[in-house]
Specification:
With 148 residues, the chain is α+β, with helices and mostly antiparallel strands. The chain has one domain. The chain is 20% helix and 24% strand. The protein is built from two helices and six strands; from the N terminus they run E-H-E-E-H-E-E-E. Strands 1, 2, 3, 4, 5 and 6 form a six-stranded mixed sheet that branches. Strand 3, helix 2 and strand 4 form a beta-alpha-beta unit. It is globular and about 45 Å long. The N and C termini lie close together (8 Å).
């Protein structure tokens, strides 16, 4: 797991991205959170959904990113370390992201879960923010952690 590392977007695949966006909308995976209620994670920290990004392909092709705010991972004043954050990201992938992936159409090659201690615009650097990213492949109905 790496802190504050973002991958540049690769060349867009507009037709596939549009298909995934439509499927996510139909599956209830809107681009913005409708309910800012905290999501339960193993560490017990308050995690809220920020947004879903599906228009920026990842290194393995079609990628869906689920972004969350987790204030307790902050470098200063936070109480959640990298190992606990990793467990939380696995739980978010299995329990939050998987049910919101499209059921038909193109299947994402990768799901990326990110935690940030504050909202950060996608693709924008924020050296003051603490961020964790983890990549997963979906296999046998679960998220399988990948090297990122």
């Amino acid at each position: 797991m790496e802190e504050a590392r973002q991958h540049p977007a690769l060349s867009p695949a507009p037709a596939r991205a549009l298909a995934v966006a439509a499927a996510l909308a139909l599956a209830g995976g809107a681009a913005r959170a409708a309910d800012p209620a905290p999501i339960a994670v193993p560490s017990g920290q308050p995690v809220t959904f920020l947004d879903t990004v599906q228009g920026a392909p990842g290194p393995d092709g079609l990628t869906v990113r689920f972004r969350f705010v987790a204030p307790q991972i902050a470098r200063e004043g936070g109480s959640i370390g990298a190992e606990q954050a990793l467990s939380d990201m696995q739980a978010l992938c299995d329990g939050y992201a998987l049910p919101r992936l499209p059921r038909g159409g193109p299947v994402p090659a990768q799901v990326i879960i990110s935690l940030a201690d504050r909202p950060v615009a996608f693709g924008e650097p924020d050296p003051d923010a603490t961020q964790y990213f983890e990549a997963y492949a979906v296999a046998d109905g679960t998220c399988q952690r990948q090297d990122f």
